[in-house]
Amino acid sequence: MIAIYKRELKAFFSSPAGYIYIAMFVAASGFCFSMFTLLAGAESSITSYFTVELFIAAFMTPLLTMKSFSEERKQKTEQLLMTAPVTLPGMVAAKFLASYTMFGIAFLITCLNLPVSLNYLSEANLFRYNAVCALGGAVALFLVGGAFIAIGVFVSSLTENQIVSGSVTVVVLALLLLISFLNTYIGFAPLRAVFSWVSIYTRFANFSSGYFDFAALLYYISIMGVCMFLTVRVYEKRRWA
Amino acid sequence: MLKVENLVKRFGDKYAVNDISFTVEDNEIVGFLGPNGAGKTTAMNIMTGYLSYTSGSVTVDCFEILDNPTEAKKLIGYLPEQPPLYPDMTVWEYLNFVYELKSCTLNRKKHLMEICEVTKIVDVRNRVIRHLSKGYCQRVGIAQALVGNPKVIILDEPTVGLDPKQIIEIRSLIRSLGRDHSVILSNHILSEVQAVCDRIMIINKGRIVADERTEELTRLMAGTRRLSAQICGPRKEVLAAINGIEEVSYIDTPKEIPGTDAYKYLIETKDGADIRRKLFTVCAGNDWPIIGMETVGASLEDVFLNLTDNRETKKKGR
After folding, report:
1. In the predicted model, what is the mean pLDDT of chain A?
2. Which label site among A201, A208, A240, B279 has the fewest CB atoms less than 10 Å from its CB?
């Protein structure tokens, strides 16, 4: 398992993909951070920053995950992994963790924004900086990122075409994020309840406004668990097909 | 060493592997022979744990492949039809990755260097796999199967797509592997398998139709040896003259050779008798120059028929 993890991580840095992901993530986050806090004057709010960050993370996830299993399948290298003395859950976990590490690196770099600007801004007294909001938002975003990646890894196990894998991931993530916005158009209350329960966005909003929602944490971790379980099942099924 | 019992693999209604059983002993080289789509690759994929079986069992050194996959897979090295290579890695990085993947405990540098020497890839070990030729990719694939010194080595069409010189090299490599490993290899070319294997199993439509020592198979095939002769001269008369030779049992419809007045005659003889001298005398007497003559080995189909026929007569005899 460690061997697969190391290889995956190395592969990100032996091609431009890893660098492009980190550069784009940090640049987009930095831009939004300045827009919504430093340059927003009285309107500045760390909450809006995290909300935008959530969308950045979602739309950039495919860059990390679209290759994950699709490429192994296309190059037939999955035969090597599946005939090696490695368990399927180990293989899936290694793939997931490698992508998650990439996200973690990019995300940690963007987190440097927070304390630096806190110092600068609290002196200048420019906006209501709420350290709790920042911490809550950061923790939640880190977990949501994991959920996104687990979804992406699962989708990539379904196809050997990277483009299909990437686009389906974006669509699924967009649906999960935006599903609560449909609620304004739906008259049927139980359906509304389901939609807002499923929505990643609704749950995330609690965090960035300073409310630490354990149910949401559990929800994100469950998504990771379920997606990894399903990925293992995809491979089991293919073996038994 | 490797024991396969009543193995069945079904895809929907279709049987890809239908009730095959065999045992491969230590240091034995066994060839899987069969036309494309006969079930060779499926059988190999099952033996290595890539696919599961519908029923039956595969045991490697007392470890069942589905019950004890991790232990069983440690004892198997596998080269699939397409070598599972990562094009973005160098050969050395790749072998190191496989070494870690298989959780080997041998001295890493020494072991990998030995493998590189055996498979003759020492010179390219620092090159990126993407830039290697097909022959080298195939060798890296074999090298990968050798990592961890597994007891059983399974090679799916190891010589496909190689040039004749490379084929000879790979053959001798496989023969040397047979000294301290059990090797199973598949191919659809008879001579290829004959050249390296101690034992040959012929698979057709998911079943083993023959399982013979190579010598035995060669003996059985002798009965179907044919002669191909290119003779100038009037077709009908030549045909009649050849038919006049006592040992001739069958002549295929002659084919015209473009640009000459010669025809190609495919001649079968009773019990594989050698009629080359007689044919020469007949043609020389009529002043029909023989411009080419060769013996043609039996085709795979002939071997099938011969072997399966033999089986049936044996059964009837009992």
Report:
1. 86
2. A240
